[in-house]
Amino acid sequence: MDLDPEGLFRDDSDEDDDNVQEREANKEMVVYLIDASPKMFTPATKADEKEETHFHTIVNCITHALKTQIIGRSYDEVAICFFNTKEKKNLQELAGVYVYNVTEREPLDRPDARLIKEFSCIEDSFMSNIGSRYGITSGSRENTLYNALWVAQALLRKGSVKTVSKRIVIFTNEDDPFGGLTGAVKTDMIRTTIQRARDAQDLGLSIELLPLSRPDEEFNMSLFYADLIGLEGDEIVDYLPSSGEKLEDMTNQLKKRMMKKRKVKTLAFAITNDVCIEVNTYALIRPTTPGAITWLDSISNLPLKAERSFICNDTGALLQDPQKRFQVYNDKIVKFSTRELSDVKRVSSHHLRLLGFKPLDYLKDYHNLRPSTFIYPSDEQIFGSTRVFVALHSSMRRLGRFALAFYGNPTHPQLVALIAQEEVTSAGGQIEPPGMHMIYLPYSDDVRYPEEVHLTSDDAPRATDEQIKKASNLLRRIDLKNFSVCQFSNPALQRHYGILEALALGEDEMPDVKDETLPDEEGLARPGVVKAVEEFKASVYGENYDQEEAEAAAAKAGASKKRKALTDAAAEKSAAHNWAELADTGKLKDMTVVDLKSYLSAHGLPVSGKKEALVSRILTHLGK
Amino acid sequence: MILAVLFSNSDGNILIERFHGVPAEERLHWRSFLVKLGADNLKGAKNEELLVASHKSVSIVYTMIGDVCLYIVGKDEYDELALAEVIFAITSAVKDVCGKPPTERLFLDKYGRICLCLDEIVWKGLLENTEKDRVRSRESPFVFSLRAGGGADERSAEVDAREREAAGRKHWFCYWMLAHPCMAFCKKLRISAPPLSDEIGVVLFGTKETCNELAKELGGYKHVVVACDIKVVDEETTNALQNLPRGTSPVTDAQHPLRDPPQGTKKDQVDTIADQMKRHEIKMDCIIFRESGVRHNAVMDENDQLLYHFRERSVTKVVQVDSPTSLLGVLRTRNVLPVTVFRGDLEVWVYKKTSEEKFPTLKKYSDKAPASDKFASHEVKVDYEYKSVLEPDTVVPPDQRIKGYLYGPQVVPISSAEWEAVKFKPEKGVKLLGFTDRSSISRHYFMKDVFSFVPEPGNTKAVAAISALARAMSEMNKVAILRCVWRQGQGNVALGVLTPNISSAKNVLDSFYFNILPFAEDIREFQFRSFSSLPSSSQPTEEQQEAADNLVKMLDLAPPGREEILKPDFTPNPMLERFYRYLDLKSKQPDANVPPLDKCLKKITEPDPDVIDYQAPLIKKLGNVFELKENPKKKKARTQDRLTYTGADDQAKLLEEPSAEKVGVSEALYPPKKKAGEIGDHNPVQDFEAMLTQRSSSTWVQTAIEEMQKYITALIQDSCDRDNHQKALECLVALRKACIIEQEPNEYNGFVTKLCQKFRTAGDAKFLQLLSSKNASLISKEEAPDSDVTEEMASNCLKPEPSTQ
C-alpha cells in the first residue's frame, strides 16, 4: 500500500513555527485561599522574635509564584482571597471573606504588574484595611471556611472545565478549624463544609491544601483536612512532606516560558515503497528567545503598526506586492515566478523517505545544523504505524544503527539522521521519552574545513605521550560529576526577565541574577587542580612559560607606564587653566598648541590635527 | 557584499570612496549618513578602536586611523565580524603604505598607493586578500585539469606545475577520471565565478591529441591538451568544457605504469614537483573518482602511492569518491573565505565548521521601468513605516520609536539606552567549566551549526597543548564543557561541548569541534507513552520484529569494502544544485520549466534503486508482515483517487529505472532530454500521466488535458473500423481519472457530451456501450464537487437511445 503524502497530510505549513500562541484551551485558573486568622500572624518559631510569620511566608510564596507565572504562563488566571477577615468583600456578601484585587482587573483574571506589586506589600496595610479575626467561634453561626469555598467556587464559575483546569489552593496553619466548637454545632459545620468541598470537586474543581506546621506541633491532616480534600489511608501520611516541597517549588521556580505539549507536524514516513507510516514531530529543544517586541510611540506609549510598501527603484512608482523575483546571472536578468521557485525547492514527493541505515559512529560531531526534532508514531490516520515504528526502533537500538532519511520539507529539504532513543525514567518521571530524534545533517555545501586552512607541508606536530599523560591527569582533576545538559539557566534570559520585572513593577534596584555558567572558581583553585594545571602547562609550554609571558606583559606594561607618565604630566599642566571659562569666553584660540594638546592628552583624546581641530575637539569634549 | 568603503578626514570631507552595488542616488544619503555617524561617535575614540552600527539590514564598522576616518558598510555575509576583518586588512595596508597612522596630508600624499591597495583588498564588494604580502597580486587563478581516460600521470602534473609558474599563485584541481561530468562542473564554476574574479584554466591529460605550449617549444608532453587558458569563466570556457575530447590514448590508461624518469626515481620526481609547487604557493586538491568494484592491481597501487606521496610532500588534499553524486558534492557551489569567530585564550582560533548554505535571496522584480530603458535596475525598494494605532495618517519617525516587551497583559517600554545600561554583558573569553563523560551528553542536544577550535597557526606550543588535550580526551572518552563569549559586548553566552577531532592526515593539526548545548529554559519536558505500555496491537510480533531487523541489516549505507554512501561531506544540496542549473537554463530560455531532478540528485532524495532491486524480496516481506490501514473516519474524499494515481505512476517509474541505471555515469549526468510534452502513439496513457506529474507550470495540467482530448478525437476520427476504439477508451478512462483528481470535471464532461452527440448523430451506439461498460460516464457531483452533473444525469447520458430523442 502506498499512501500519498500530499493527499493524506495536507497540513503542510512551511516552517516549524514554534511560537504559536498558547491557546485558550489548556489554560489554568487558580484561586488562592489564604487563612488570615490571628494565628497566622504569630511568629513561625518561638525561639526568635524576629522570625517571619506564616502569613509573610505565604505572601512571599504567592508573589514569587505570580512573578514566575506572568512570564511562563501569562494566560492563566488568578484570584486571591483571604478568609477569617474583619472586613468582607465578595459578590455574595458573605462574612469573613475578602477577595483581594487591584483596579482595572477582574477578581479572577490574568496577573498584572500592579497586582504583584501591591500584593507583595500587602502586609503593611493588611491590618488596617482588611483586618484579621477568628472566623469560627463558638456562639457565632458563621462558618468562614465554608464561605470561602463558596466564594472560590463562584469565582471559578467562568470557563468550561473541559478546556480549563481549575484549582483552589488553601494556605493555612490551623489543622483543626472547628476545634473551638462542640456538640451538634461542630458536627453540623464540619458536615456542611465537607459537603461544600465535595460539591466543588464534583464540578471539576480540584482543591489543594498547603499546610504550614506551627513550631510546637505538626499539622495534623487527619483532624479535618484529609476529609476535606478527600485523602485516604497512606496518602495522608505522604501528603505533608510533599506539600512542603510544593511550597518550596512555588517560591524557587525557574522563570521559564512553559510550553504545552503540541505536535509540530504530522509526517508520512515512507520506509519502503509499500510501507508508509504516520509520525508526529515535536520540538523538545528550541532556543528560547526573550519574546516578541512591540514597537511603541515613545511619547504616547501606544503601540505602532508597521506598514510595508514596495517602491520601484527605477520609476519610484508604488507597487503591489511584486510576485516576480530575479537574479542577475551572466549580466542578464533572470526572472522567476514564486511558483517556479517553490517548484525548484520541491525536490521530494515524500515527507520523510528512508534511505538506509548506518552505524552510529558514522554520525560525526560536526554533522549538525539546527536543534533536533523528536518523532513519535501515531495511529490517527494510518492504523498500524506504531507497530512498525516500534519494531524499527528496537531493531535500530539493538543493531546500533541510525537511519538516514530524506526530509522533503518544502522550504528546507534536508538529509536527516534518525536516532532511536530509549526511554529513560527516574523517580521524578520520564527523563528521555522513547522515540527517535531527527538530526539535520549538513550538505557538502555547508561543511567547511577550517582545520585545513593553515596546512603545513611538513608533518603537523603532535603531543608527546608525556604531554598527553599530563593532560589526562588534568581531565581527571577537573571532572564535572553528574553533569546534565540542562542544569544551567540562560543568564542573559534570566537577566532579561529580571529587568523586565523590575521595570514593570517600578522597583528601584535591578535584580542581581546569578550567572550559573561561570566556572567554579573555588573548585579550580583547589591545590590538586592547580598542581595538575601547572604540570600540564610546564609539559606543554615549557618551564619558563610564565616568565616569558610575564616579560611580554611587562614590555607592554612598560610602554603603558611611559604613556601614563605623559598623561600625568599633561594633566598637571592642563589643570593650570580653567578650560570651561576659556571656552565660554572664546579664548581657546588664543592658547598655544602645546597647551591645547596638554588638555587633550590629559583627557585621553587624540592630539593630532590643526589648531582649529584641537579647539573644536576640546569644545566637543567640554560639551559646548 | 561590502556596499561601501569610505575614507573621510576629521572634518567630514570625503577622501576616498568605493561603492559596490549602491545606486547613484543612494550614495549621497550614505555619504552624509556615515559622516554624521563619525562626527557623532568618532570624536574622542581611540586610534583604531572599532565602532559598530547597524542601519536597516546593513552593518557598519568604522574607525579612526590617525586623522582619517574609515567606514565600511556591508550586508548579508559581511556582518560586523567579517567587516572587522576587512577593516583590519585595510588599516594595516594603509599603515604599511604610510609608515605610521596617517595624518590627512600624509594620506593624500600616498593617495595613489592607498587606492591600489584598497582595490586589492576589496574587489567588487568582496573581501579579496587580507594578507599584506598577497595584496600585491590580484590574480588567484584556478587550473582545472581534467583527465580523460583516468589514472595518474606525473608528466602532466609537471606540465601543470610549469604552467602555474608562469601565472603566479594558483589553485589547481586535478581530476583523474573520465571527462563526462565536466558539464556539471562548468555550471558550478559559472555560479561561483561571477562574484569572484577567479580565473580558471583547463588542462586535459590522457587525450588523443596534443596541444600545449611546452610540447610546441620543447617537444614531448604528449597527450596533454590545454582546453582553455587561464581566465575568468565565461561562455567560451563553458563551451570548451562541453565539447571536451574523450580520452582514447593507451599511453595514459589508468592501468598503465608511469615511465621511469631519465634520472632518479619516480618518487624523486614527485619530490621535485612538490617542492616547486610549495615554492610557488600552489595548493592542489585532488579528487579521485573510482567507481566501486574496480579491481586494484600493482600498477594502480603504485600510482596511488605516488599521488598520496604528493599529499605528504606538498600542500595537497586528496579526496576519493565513488559515485557521481559524491563527485557533485565535492565541488562546492561557493568557496567561502573562512573568517575567525574568535581569537584568544589558549591560543585558539575559532572558525565555523558547518554553516548552512542558504537558498539565494532573490531580489523582487519591478516591471514598471519602460522596456526601452537599458539601464533599469528593476529592483524594488521595500519601505517600512510605523504608524500610531490611533492616528493612522501620521508616520512616527525612527527616533521616536521605543521597544516594548510584554509583561503579562501589559507592554513595558524600554529604551535602548536604558537597556544597554542594565543588560547582561559578559566578558569576552572562553572559560572551561570542566570535563565530563562523553556519554552524559546525548547527540540530540546539539543545538546549532558547529564551530571548530584550531590552534593558532605557527604557535607550536598551542598546537601541542591542543593536541595533548584532544588526545587525552579521546582516550578517556571525555568531553569538555565550555562557556564562550565570542565578542565583547555580545549579549549572551554560548554554553557548549568541546569534542576532540584527531586528525587522520599527517599534515593537518589536531583540533576540536564545539557544539552549543541548550539551557534549562530551552528544554520542553513533554511526556510520551512508553513503548512497553502500549497495547499488544501496537507491539510487533516476533515475525514482524525479524523483518524489521533484516531491513536494518540489509539496507546498509556503509557496506564493507565501499565508501560510505551519502556521506554528508560529499552530498550536494539537491535544491541548490537544481536551482543553479535552472538559473543557467533560464538565462538561455526565459520560459523554461523547472527541470526534474536528475538521476544523480534523485539518489539523495530517494533510496538507490539498485539497492531496492537487490533487496526486493526483503522489502516485499516487510510490506507483507505489517498491516497498515487507513483510518476510515479520517479519510478525505480525494485520497483514494490520489492513491491509485501515484501508485500507477510509481510503477511506471519502477519499470523504467532499472534499465536506465545500467547505462552508467555518463547517462546519469546527462539525463536524456526527453520532454514529456507530447502524447505519442506508442503509449498514450503513460505519456499523459507523465505530463501530469511534470506539472512544473500551472498551465501544464490544462495542456495535458487538451492534448489528450485532441488525441482521442483524432483516434476516433481516424478509425473507420473499430480497432482504435479500445485504445481511445483507455485514454478516455485515464482522462476521466485525471479530471477527477485535478478537479476539472467540466473539462471531461463537456468533452464526453460532445463525443456522445457525435456518435449519436452517426448512429453508432457501439462506442457508447463500450463507454458505459468501462464506467466512463460523466463525472458526477459525488465524485468531484465542482461538477454540476448529478448521478442520474451521468448514468443517463450514455444510454444509447435517450428518452429525449
TrEMBL record, chain A:
Annotated region described as Disordered, given as residue ranges: 1-22
Catalytic activity: ATP + H2O = ADP + phosphate + H(+)
Main location: nucleus
GO biological process, one term: DNA recombination
Domain of life where this protein originates: Eukaryota
Entry-linked Pfam families: Ku, Ku_C, Ku_N, SAP
Residues annotated as domain SAP: 588-622
Entry keyword annotation includes Plastid: no
Cellular component, GO, one term: Ku70:Ku80 complex
Enzyme Commission number(s) from the entry: 3.6.4.12
Keyword annotations from UniProtKB, A to Z: ATP-binding, DNA damage, DNA recombination, DNA repair, DNA-binding, Helicase, Hydrolase, Nucleotide-binding, Nucleus
Protein location: Nucleus
InterPro entries attached to this UniProt entry: DNA_bd_Ku70/Ku80, Ku70, Ku70_bridge/pillars_dom_sf, KU70_core_dom, Ku_C, Ku_N, SAP_dom, SAP_dom_sf
GO MF annotation, one: hydrolase activity
Family per similarity comment: Belongs to the ku70 family.
NCBIfam families tied to this protein: ku70
Protein name, UniProt field: ATP-dependent DNA helicase 2 subunit KU70
Gene source species: Oryza meridionalis
Automatic annotation (TrEMBL), chain B:
Segments passing through the bilayer: none
Biased composition (Polar residues): 242-252
SUPFAM superfamilies cross-referenced by the UniProt entry: C-terminal domain of Ku80, SNARE-like, SPOC domain-like, vWA-like
Annotated family: Belongs to the ku80 family.
Recorded GO MF terms: ATP binding; damaged DNA binding; DNA helicase activity; double-stranded DNA binding; hydrolase activity; telomeric DNA binding
Keywords: ATP-binding, DNA damage, DNA recombination, DNA repair, DNA-binding, Helicase, Hydrolase, Nucleotide-binding, Nucleus
Pfam family, one: Ku_PK_bind
Any GO BP: double-strand break repair via nonhomologous end joining
InterPro entries: DNA_bd_Ku70/Ku80, Ku80, Ku_C, Ku_C_sf, Ku_PK_bind, Longin-like_dom_sf, SPOC-like_C_dom_sf, vWFA_dom_sf
UniProt protein name: Ku domain-containing protein
Domain spans labelled Ku: 393-534
CDD domains per UniProt: KU80
Superkingdom to which the source organism belongs: Eukaryota
A GO cellular-component term linked to this record: Ku70:Ku80 complex
Region (Disordered): 242-268, 781-805
Subcellular location, record wording: Nucleus
